[in-house]
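Hello forum,

I keep getting stuck at the same step: I have a sequence, I want structure tokens, and every attempt I make locally crashes halfway through. Rather than fight my setup again tonight, could one of you with a working pipeline run this one for me? It's a single chain of 172 residues.
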Amino acid sequence: MQVPTFLITVMPDYGFGPYAWQKSASADSSPLVGQCIATAVDGFEAEDGTIISSELQDEFADWTAQFEQFAEKPDFDWLAFHHKGLSLSKKLKRELGPRYRVSYHKPCEDPGREIDEYTEVTSDVQLIAQRGRPASGPPVSFDVDRRTIPPFARGQPCPKPVSLPSTAKLRL
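Reply #2:
Ran it on my machine without issues. Output:
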């Protein structure tokens, strides 16, 4: 089994549609996501020259455009947005293979971001949700086809961090 060399973080931001950030897998304990390596305008190119398919790049460009245009609106559908982001993260992991770890981070604009703020996509394309930063604690494993985000995370502020039991099964 190949040990991942790089950690790619999928997280939208404002600008020219930035959506992927890279750092060394050995720097995982750092709270920073690393250097931006992908935008809707310039495409995806990892530090080692790895690129992704044009189809996946187009999907990421559409996804980040949705974020930049609508994320500040009070009725933005964060549930659907994260569903698409996790789906794109799984596709990215499939294309990149075992040399890369891929994680999905909810953007700070999401009022419910504390719930499963960080989700790692494993080599078998399973999602492992974590509360807080990547190195903050043991992961909680979820079945990809049965995952959901609680209703109060849909554009409504979360009054305080919510503790989920480690055996929580959620649906998508």
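Residues 133-172 have pLDDT under 50 and may be disordered. If your local run keeps crashing, start a new thread with the error log.
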